[in-house]
């Protein structure tokens, strides 16, 4: 009987220590980008379908003089906080542009990708708020962010629209890279 009480006491103490080691509030508020490390095949197919459908739509003025997604460096070269800022800017642009598309034939094709990208955008915001709330971008990233802002202000709507859709897989690759805590390739 004494042995049974001792085992119960030991089990209770172990459970209490285990619970203290993993606080529930920390788990709810933590960063959850790991799910973007490996994207589901159906999400990738939906993105490809959206990209293909966009490519077949009648073209308005999609020419860009600034090429907003062109960079001489990859996201793997950035620190983790910089990667998160990069992906946030890319996701902000792409969700805005996909949301603006008003072609009725495109509505069905872009709903799933838009929902996925919006969820990634929200998850990234939570991570940035908890892990890097006051991070200042590196010189390399700051220059690219300025270039992106200039493109959004000076280009016709067709340019950032086309750039965002046509570079969706680059954005997904950057998201995958941001999900990793170590260096990515």
Coarse shape: globular
Q: Low-confidence spans: pLDDT under 50, at least 5 residues?
A: 2-6, 8-29
Report strand %. under 5%
> What is the count of DSSP helices, taking H or I runs of 4+ residues?
8
Structural category: mainly alpha
The helix/strand order is HHHHHHHH
Average pLDDT confidence is: 78
Helix content: 55-70%
- Using the CA coordinates, give the radius of gyration: 22 Å
Organism: Rostratula benghalensis
Subcellular location: Secreted
GO molecular function, one term: cytokine activity
Pfam families: IL28A
Describe this structure in words.
Helices cover 69% and strands 0% of the residues. The N and C termini lie far apart (59 Å). With 185 residues, it is mainly α. Mean pLDDT is 78; it is low at 2-6 and 8-29. The chain has a domain at 88-184. It has eight helices and no strands.
Layout: helices, strands, pairs:
Layout: H1 2-21, H2 24-29, H3 41-56, H4 80-100, H5 104-131, H6 139-154, H7 158-166, H8 168-179
Helix pairs in contact: 3-5, 4-5, 4-7, 4-8
Pfam family, one: IL28A
Signal peptide: 1-21
InterPro entries: IFN-lambda_sf (IPR038326), INF_lambda (IPR029177)
Task: Supply the key terms.
secreted; cytokine; 0% strand; IFNL3 protein; mainly alpha; INF_lambda; signal; globular; 185 residues
The gist of it:
This protein is mainly α and 185 residues long. Helices cover 69% and strands 0% of the residues.
